[in-house]
Prior knowledge:
By secondary structure, the protein is α/β, with parallel strands linked by helices. 30% of the residues lie in helices and 22% in strands.
Amino acid sequence: xxxxxxxxxxLISLSCCTTGQSSKPVASTQSVVRVAPDFNADSAYVYVEKxxxxxxxxxxxxAHDDCANYLSSELKRFGATVIEQKATLTNFDGxxxxxxxxxxxxxxxxPDRILLLSHWDSRPFADNDPNKANHKTPVxxxxxxxxxxxxxxxxxxxxxxxxxxxxxxxxxxxxEDTGAPYFFKGNQSEDDWCLGTQYWAKNLHIPxxxxxxGILLDMVGAGNAMFYKDAVSVEYAGSVTDKVWxxxxxxxxxxxxxxxxxxxxxxxxxxxNRLANIPCVDIINYDPQSRQGFPAHxxxxxxxxxxxxxxxxxxxxxxxxxxVYSEK
Length: 328
Ligand code: AHN
Ligand code: ZN
């Protein structure tokens, strides 16, 4: 049974005539047929805020462990089958990080699945902050971390009310933002980032786990967010990228989902594509035309609730939901 939402946008312009001529109101009507239920951005916003209240979710801290418990219990509250994948990972400087990937699964009997993921940790260094004195202070990671997780928690709540046709796995990966800061004197590597996803891809939570495709959300909460098709998504998951972007544009979010090609972005999707062999796209606020690419609050102490805008959460969440509920 399909739940069809017909959204009628009627723009009626009434002009007041100074010439004394009477003119009829002009109405332009555009209708969009949606398959998914309504994504509630107020609810998603609360999940983002909840995470922010723990403080920086840096591995080996209490805030980090408390937030892991929160995410796990929320997924359970929304009826998911939850696995906590704990691991000790090696950081760029050789120190050990106690990390936890959290997986919430729906329709576990179905072999046809979609993977939705977001990192939930926050960066230990605000190494892009305008004030150099802050470069060793952890970021709150509200856009960079909590925003994607908040959207996916709301998708989980939607699924608890209405099951899609296929299986869904929501994966909250840890230790993404662990890359060496510029002031680290030792060797640096792309593989210093995304430690949680690398571990998951090499130690799948279910042996032989497969999904039709994956969608990664990263920094999706800013009001002026723009999502370009990054080079990794296009290379490994071109048709999925086109499908997600076309869906976003069709349901009215073309202001966020841009057709241009973005840069090559090191992010969790790289390892989902290369190590797990699951085609995976990255929805990330990155503008290849801007000077630094990432938004101004990226890896600064300004990555707080003040940048989070409900319309952006709505655009991403409704698009993901539409993709999920459209899948046969
Ligand atoms: C780098 O910063 C190298 N890549 C982007 C991955 C990232 C960091 N996403 C959020 N924070
Ligand atoms: Zn980051």
